[in-house]
UniProtKB/TrEMBL annotation:
Region (CPSase): 1-192
Family, similarity comment: Belongs to the CarA family.
Biological or metabolic pathway of the protein: Pyrimidine metabolism; UMP biosynthesis via de novo pathway; (S)-dihydroorotate from bicarbonate: step 1/3; Amino-acid biosynthesis; L-arginine biosynthesis; carbamoyl phosphate from bicarbonate: step 1/1
Name of the molecule in the record: Carbamoyl phosphate synthase small chain
Quaternary context: Composed of two chains; the small (or glutamine) chain promotes the hydrolysis of glutamine to ammonia, which is used by the large (or ammonia) chain to synthesize carbamoyl phosphate. Tetramer of heterodimers (alpha,beta)4.
Length: 383
């Protein structure tokens, strides 16, 4: 066998050797696994993956290359990727470049040639492990040092990463969803004003808000209630994002509490859902290995209908802690964890999963319409 050029060391001392691609170097992170069969580019550029290396259980990546329009943010955010096979040469008319070159240009490490079934079992058994991932074209690894670095990684509990990946300045977002062959369809004039607080927002969420006719202004994660209300919005959106919701909640919760008191329609996704729950007085906990994939069944407790959803979270809202007046609306059919909530008598709701997909099925896209309807109902009532 040729000399391994990549090494993945878990904090418990388990070591995987493989072939490096993308950038050379070293990184420490939490390791999770994602079961999506498509969408490696969207996954690697989802800001919620800050501080994480992603194992892909689907064995092939690279097939569709890299297409700039498919970025969920400007740069890859996940620290690295681990896959079974080396990336395939791209074969798509949309591909602008190949996966490995793109990762290299963005300083992100890839590792192929790994028994990802064994690795995924390890993640399920021990909980998302802390790891060191190294890529050296010469294949010179100090394995003990890598294990020690994995052990020294502090973990995501207590980490506020949203502030790092959030926009520094507010901006208007006007690009809609992909309307082939015309590209992204722009926002219509005169739609309701929505303030989207960016804790690490995926672009397809902003596009989905535009798709239902909203005029979207994005604010940094640290925006205060005063900043939000100064824009005289018709609705508040709380985005997805990385890290521990409790840590980001330290500054987000006071803002959310104050804004929802005004009766403003509010919609949260993933980290936004978790922080809305915290603002309402519930608690969040770290999961064993989380939910990351594009095939997660979720039950709508109101209708009994099952949605196949896109998921990416390692923390969860503890449903036992939801206070009176807050209803659990959705649950995961994998493990019964909370997947949605609604405040009784108020246009305030959120979901743990990703109705914007990217990648994943579109079963839950109706939630953006529900937000728009809540905004219209309040605007109508105010007239
Ligand atoms: N996608 C997200 O918003 C993730 C939320 C949070 N960082 C978690 O891991 O649970």
């Amino acid at each position: 066998m040729t000399r391994p050029t990549a090494c993945l060391a878990l904090a418990d001392g388990t070591v995987f050797m493989g072939r490096g691609f993308g950038a050379a170097g070293e990184t420490v992170a939490e390791l999770c696994f994602n079961t999506a069969m498509t969408g490696y580019q969207e996954i690697m550029t989802d800001p919620s993956y800050a501080g994480q290396v992603v194992t892909f259980t689907f064995p092939h990546v690279g097939n569709t290359g890299i297409t700039p329009e498919d970025d969920e943010t400007g740069d890859p955010v996940a620290e690295g990727m681990v896959v079974k096979w080396d990336p395939t040469e791209p074969s798509s008319w949309r591909a602008a470049r190949d996966l490995s070159g793109w990762l290299a240009a963005r300083g992100r490490i890839g590792m192929g040639g790994v028994d990802t079934r064994r690795l995924t079992r390890a993640i399920r058994q021990q909980g998302a492990p802390h790891v060191a991932l190294a890529h050296d074209p010469e294949g010179a690894f100090d394995i003990e040092a890598l294990v020690a670095k994995a052990r020294a990684f502090p973990g995501l509990v207590g980490m506020d990463l949203a502030r790092d990946v959030s926009t520094r300045q507010s901006y208007r977002w006007s690009e809609g969803k992909w309307g082939w062959p015309d590209g992204h369809v722009a926002a219509p004039e005169g739609g309701p004003r929505v303030v989207a607080v960016d804790y690490g927002a995926k672009r397809n969420i902003l596009r989905s808000l535009v798709h239902v006719g909203c005029d979207v202004t994005v604010l940094p994660a640290t925006a205060t209630a005063e900043d939000v209300l100064a824009l005289e919005p018709d609705g508040l959106f709380l985005s997805n994002g990385p890290g521990d919701p409790a840590a980001t909640g330290a500054y987000a919760v006071p803002m959310i509490r104050e804004v929802i008191e005004t009766g403003l329609p509010t919609f949260g996704i993933c980290l936004g859902h978790q922080m809305l729950a915290l603002a309402l007085g519930a608690g969040t906990v770290k999961m064993n290995h989380g939910h990351h994939g594009a095939n997660h069944p979720v039950k709508d407790l109101g209708t009994g209908k099952v949605e196949i959803t896109s998921m990416n979270h390692g923390f969860t809202v503890d449903a036992q802690t939801l206070p009176e007046g807050v209803t659990q609306t959705h649950v995961s059919l994998f493990d019964g964890t909370n997947c949605g909530l609604r405040v009784e008598g108020r246009p305030v709701f959120s979901v743990q999963y990703h109705p914007e997909a990217s990648p994943g099925p579109h079963d839950s896209a109706y939630l953006f319409d529900r937000f728009r309807d809540a905004i219209d109902a309040r605007r109508g009532a105010a007239r």
